[in-house]
Amino acid sequence: MSKSIKRKSKQRASAFAPATVANVAVGFDIMGFALEGLGEVATVERIPLADQASPVIIGPIKGFPEIVTEPEKNTAGAGLLRLIQDQKLKFGFRVQLVKQIPVGSGLGGSSTSAVAALVAANALLDKSLSPHQILEYALIGEEVASGSRHADNVGPCLLGGLLFVRSFPRLSYAKIKTPSIVRVVILLPKLSIKTKEARQILKPEVPLSRVIEQTANLTGFILGCVSKDLQLIRESLRDAIIEPQRAALIPGFSRIQLAAMNAGALGCSISGSGPAMFALALDQKTAVKIQKQMRVACHAAGTPVYGSWISGISKRGAHLNP
Amino acid sequence: MSKSIKRKSKQRASAFAPATVANVAVGFDIMGFALEGLGEVATVERIPLADQASPVIIGPIKGFPEIVTEPEKNTAGAGLLRLIQDQKLKFGFRVQLVKQIPVGSGLGGSSTSAVAALVAANALLDKSLSPHQILEYALIGEEVASGSRHADNVGPCLLGGLLFVRSFPRLSYAKIKTPSIVRVVILLPKLSIKTKEARQILKPEVPLSRVIEQTANLTGFILGCVSKDLQLIRESLRDAIIEPQRAALIPGFSRIQLAAMNAGALGCSISGSGPAMFALALDQKTAVKIQKQMRVACHAAGTPVYGSWISGISKRGAHLNP
Question: Is any Cβ of chain A less than 8 angstroms from the Cβ of B170?
């Protein structure tokens, strides 16, 4: 994103925003990573402001046209509306979206809309926003979708990599280096889980012993990533708190997880609030094997597979298309 | 610790083990760091095995002679007894201890006995133990003292630095790099808190919102240390779970903590299960100011000060004396 003030304003821009895996087994609400390739494209045009109409028009949405297009209820629209208001823009935006992943899959499908639209819109502004500002506007969209202000999808979606992000007491984030060899396997069972519902089933209290176990897992995972200690990653990438409560939302979860681990995964858990699952692998060959075994186990549990992918962890996050 | 097999066995050795700050506000039961200078010296001699007597004799204990000297109940003795048994040694040990800090202070005073005695005893063995083995024996001593198998004191005491350590499902540990400029202020109010009692007051359940806050603090602190991001350390070194429950054990806690923060501390919390408190500072001058203000606040709260120290984080941990 250029920070220079443009002399001749751009009228149209297109941006890609990657799907993301939030929580990552050990970092509920505070961690996520971006995928390569899989995501969403937003094409945004400047439109004149009309007195009676909304300054933001959403649509068409390719891929999943059932998504709400009223701008204030749409994750892309909500942030743009606030942006127009805050920056006192003399123009509005028309947003077209091409989605590769369904909303409600646990792959940050509402964040991709918000982030892709904002990154594209940012290219049309006379004065560019900082990444931090884009994140704040994307969080407005995230709030519309999930009912809570969590940046564990929008953060890595915008900035890439494995990201620690917290939105309280202030929005702050830091990247965590990951071994570059790591491959990600994503399995998306054909189920729909709403983030709000997945949050509601969580017990409001956690046993202290589980907290100790989880903080040890979290620390071991971070230090394993930082020092490239794969054994430490393997023994740490386990969810002692959230997964045991949410696994029941995915029929066959334990079977699929076991299949991934037996096929050589470093770890396997729920992506975001599911139903997507992720597994980490150390090379492409193992990833292929894991993908196959996860698909087989999912089918065997009677749950159809919507799709599965093998990806890397995207270093760059959302970006303008040329 | 030399790993070579000694031809002529040493009969007597002396080792220093540093005091430690466990929990470190964000890592209850899984993290601790070693202090420079403050700690305990153990002098260990080989003694012949006598049929009727215990193979380990503890004493004299200088500094705090009230400590139990029955070897199986003493933190230094318990590990040595197991060592003699496991390794089928043909000799026993006499252990003299010189303690600088009282047991029950929250500075790992039982770990220093166990670790110093084991490091000295290790120098008298025909075949040296690995650090991992020493840690396992030290944990036996820790169990005698606290009733639970936690390595957050013995780990950094033996290995030095800021250490992540977990004892479940297996004993594992990893060092966390800290900015070398960091200075540690220790304030020890004249109170005695037993680890067992400090554990008993903890509620068995933690609100999920606190877990999220604490895991964010933990992650921010680790990443702040790794990337030398002092702002991140400052906003993260806060205990959302344990400190609010244990602060009442230290009359004037909030006042002392506030005094430390106002004097420029990066963070300030309870050391281990208290009553010692620690604060981190970025230079000696600030550390001196913090120390003074903490002492003043402690006195003002009506609690006498047993002692206070300024130290660095010890990189090397326990070591043989020349």
Answer: yes
CB contact under 8 A, A229 and B29: no
Please state, in angstroms and rounded to a whole number, the distance separating the CA atoms of residues A28 and A203.
Answer: 14
What pLDDT, on a 0 to 100 scale, did the predictor assign at position B6? 47
Q: What angle do CA A29, A30, A34 make, to 5 degrees?
A: 100
The tally of domains found in chain A comes to 2
CB pairs under 8 A between A and B: 107
The pLDDT of residue B165: 96
Q: Does A136 lie in the same domain as A205?
A: no
User: Which of A211, A231, A238 should we substitute to test contact with B (largest number of B Cβ atoms within 10 Å)?
Assistant: A211
Same domain, B282 and B299: yes
Tell if the CB–CB gap between A203 and B206 is shorter than 8 Å: no
Q: Report yes or no on whether pTM surpasses 0.90.
A: yes
- What tens digit of pLDDT does each residue of B130-151 get? 999 999 999 998 888 777 778 9
Residue B1: per-residue pLDDT: 47
ipTM of the complex: 0.92
Are B130 and B51 in the same domain? yes
CB proximity A51 to B under 8 Å: no
Residue A133 and residue B255: Cα distance in Å, rounded?
A: 37
Q: Determine the 3-state secondary structure of A75 from DSSP.
A: helix
- What percent of chain B stands above pLDDT 90? 79
Of B164, B219, B241, nearest to A164 by CB-CB distance is B219
Domain that holds residue B62: 12-176
- CATH code: domain of residue B283: 3.30.70.890
Gap from A265 CA to chain B (nearest CA, Å):
19
Task: Give the three-state DSSP class for A140.
Answer: helix
DSSP of B186-209: EEEES----HHHHHHTS-SEEEHH
With a cut of 50, which residues of chain A have pLDDT below it?
Answer: 1-2, 6
